[in-house]
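User: Structure please.
Assistant: Input sequence and predicted structure:
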Amino acid sequence: MKLFGSENDRTRPHGTLFYALIYSGALALIALLALASHLLVDKIIAEEATTGTVVKIAARQVALSQRIGGLSFQYAQSAPQERQLLEPLLRQSIGLMRSSHEALIRGDRQLGLPDSLPSEVDEIYFGENGGLDQRVRRFLVLAEDFLRLPEDLVDPRNQGLVRLMGAAQDTLMEELSQAVMTYEEVSKRNIEELRLRTYGLIAAILSVLFLEAVFVFRPLFRNLVQQRESLFDMARRDPLTGCLNRRSVLEGAALEFARSKRYGNPLTVAMLDIDYFKHVNDKHGHAGGDAVLNRLVEMAQETVRKTDIFGRVGGEEFAFILPETDLEGAYVLAEKLRMLSEAAEVRWAHETITFTVSIGLGVVSQLDQSEQQALSRADKALYQAKQAGRNRVAAFNMDQIEAVV
């Protein structure tokens, strides 16, 4: 298919170039819409992650305020030696609550927190009617002041401790929970708005795809399919002989191996090599060798069944994958092809070329882990056939390689 057509085609209002330009424009528009959708989805994910982090931090502040209150009360009731153990825990809790609070109101890139709070949440922390920020800070100051009290003033009835416990149990817990709820509501509205925008972009993409299918793909679809099939076939086949290439043979072998393993059906593979092929090339040239390869492929394709897989896996080496075939059946096919090759005469440049082949057989075992094991056995059998004098079929019987004459 000529993408841009001929000169006359370019001048027609609805020629191939016209459709190609529409197609390119539609692709560009789809890419932009897809990018926008991706950015919106990223923003939704970030918004949800931020909300989760804020909720986690706020929950930590609530827990820390309770922990600080509890440790302070325990500190007031303990003996001096026990207070030495409780003081580091109390200071650590105060530090964690302060750092969590600063991260929440000022942002933290490592935690994924924004630099500013939503206006509704900001009002709770810093507004005239809010002031949660000041209350958290006063609570932390009360806790630190309590730790600085002299030993003789540390008492469960200390007014500083009473105020600290009251703030931890009532005010902070309630206001922190309110801040979290407000943040969740704002985030929910933002996410819903982003989702609506995403749906709109998806609808736009689908509309463009629909219009493209109607006005672009329908006129070109048949030619594109034909071109694809042609390219696919070219990728699967050997360019010289037209039979399957190595990759296709191995893919077919893997598929048939899996089927044989699943259903327990017999499967045999064969490796074929043209005897003294280098001598044929040296005597008749590579063109004469190519003629021999093509003649062999013609005979092989006439010999194998439609369900068999046959292809060229090397220079003068070919492979057969024979489903539903045991060693005896594979030998019959291989011997037939061997005799056809022995009797064949290839006419080339006023000369007659004769040739023979050697074939090795390997049976798939249910103990095999991959098709490569059977192919390796067939290759060993092929080597045995060559060692025994060529122009023969040899089979690997799982225990030894034996020549079959």
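Residues 8-212 form a domain with the f41 fragment of flagellin, N-terminal domain fold (CATH 1.20.1330).
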